[in-house]
Amino acid sequence: MAPSGSRSIKRGCQRVLYWIPVLFIALIVAWSYYAYVLQLCIESIEDTGEKVVYLLAYHVIFVMFAWAYWQTIFTKPMNPLEEFHLSYSDKELLEREDRGESQQEILRRIAKDLPIYTRTNSGAIRFCDRCQLLKPDRCHHCSVCDKCILKMDHHCPWVNNCVGFSNYKFFMLFLAYSLLYCLFITATDLRYFVKFWTNGLPDTQAKFHILFLFFSASMFSVSLASLFIYHCWLVCKNRSTLEAVRAPVFRHGTDKSGFSLGFSKNFRQVFGDEMKYWPIPIFSSLGDGCSFPTCLVNLDPEQPSSPTGSTPANKGAAEGHQFPSKPLRESQSRLLTSTPSWTESDNAADIRTDVKGASNPGMTIENEA
Question: What does the comment on domains in this protein's record state (predicted)?
Answer without folding.
Answer: The DHHC domain is required for palmitoyltransferase activity.
